[in-house]
Design brief:
Elements lengths: L3 H11 L5 H8 L3 H13 L3 E5 L7 E5 L1 H4 L2 H14 L7 E6 L4 E2 L2 E5 L11 E5 L28 H7 L2 H11 L5 H8 L3 H13 L3 E8 L2 E7 L1 H4 L2 H15 L7 E5 L8 E5 L11 E7 L1
Helix pairs in contact: 1-2, 5-6, 5-11, 7-8
Length: 289
């Protein structure tokens, strides 16, 4: 998921684009790059390819069950974007929770007690799975810019999650690793990459610095309010990863909800009625620019 073109494709599909031409127009991706990412998503079981509805001869792309299970992650990105994203370039998407009929305000809650949680409410220990492991990605990064004139639902949030190193840095800081060397060891990135991404995350207001040494100056990195609220995104993506890429021994991290003491299993609920939010009970009210 740490790939901007992939996230732009999934965003477009959630908004109803299913054919290659529609996806190209909405994402602004070049034909070869779009084709490559679609094939990757099919290979990894997130998409399937078949004929379009209504007897059309055109081929269409559909989300598999694995793809649909990314819906909670998309919702948390949507919530973060509406609060912290750039209004000038954001798609003004309005959702309704059909179960209660109210405008949708999705919130992450503990499955055991139903209470809304954030980072301060959660403790963790390493589980029987693989644990927190350094990334093994290529150090080459495809620089992708937004070339479409279409407003984007998840522009600001995609720029974080869609950069694998920025996402891994956020993961490290969420697990209380705050110093440069700690973050580098955890992510496996080069010092130049870590330095570049930390500067960008500070510039966008997700992180802030506090010096712990003066000669030479060395900083620790802390989450701002904007960065803290990105926790729900990382949490839902981790849940999806545990389901589809987890080790047979169990999850790599075991979470506990401090408020109720239960093993934390996150879910997305409607703030208005407390009922679970699923793709089947959400409707788009409007999607203007």
């Amino acid at each position: 998921m740490g790939d901007t073109p992939t996230l732009l494709i999934l965003e477009s599909m959630w908004l109803g684009s299913t054919r290659f031409k529609q996806l190209k127009e909405r994402t602004g991706l070049q034909k070869a790059l779009l084709s490559n990412r679609l094939q990757r998503l099919i290979k990894n079981g997130v998409l399937r390819k078949g004929t379009a509805e209504g007897g059309s001869k055109h081929l269409a792309y559909r989300l598999t069950e694995k793809g649909v299970d990314l819906f909670p992650t998309v919702l948390t990105l949507y919530v973060w974007e509406r609060k912290w994203g750039s209004a000038d370039s954001r798609l003004n998407l309005q959702l309704r929770h059909d179960a209660c009929g109210a405008p949708l305000h999705p919130v992450p809650v503990c499955q055991s007690c139903g209470e809304i949680f954030n980072l301060q409410h959660v403790s963790f220990v390493e589980g029987p799975g693989l644990g927190l492991m350094p990334a093994s990605y290529s150090r080459r990064r495809n620089q992708v810019t937004f070339q479409s004139d279409q407003p984007s639902l998840l522009r600001g949030s995609v720029e974080i999650l869609g950069d694998r190193w920025s996402a891994l840095i956020m993961r490290a800081i969420f697990t209380a690793l705050r110093r440069f060397d700690e973050i580098q060891d955890d992510t496996g990135a080069s010092p130049a990459i870590i330095s570049d991404r930390l500067k960008k995350l500070v510039a966008t207001g997700v992180l802030k610095t506090k010096p712990y040494q003066q000669h030479p100056v060395r900083n620790e990195y802390f989450l701002t309010a904007k960065g803290l609220e990105y926790y729900a995104v990382i949490m839902m993506l981790m849940l999806w990863g545990d389901k589809y890429y987890g080790a047979t021994e169990g999850p790599p991290v075991i979470l506990t909800h401090k408020s109720c003491g239960a093993h934390l299993v996150p879910k997305i609920a409607c703030k208005n009625c407390d009922a679970p939010v699923t793709p089947q009970n959400v409707s788009i009210i409007s999607a203007g620019g």
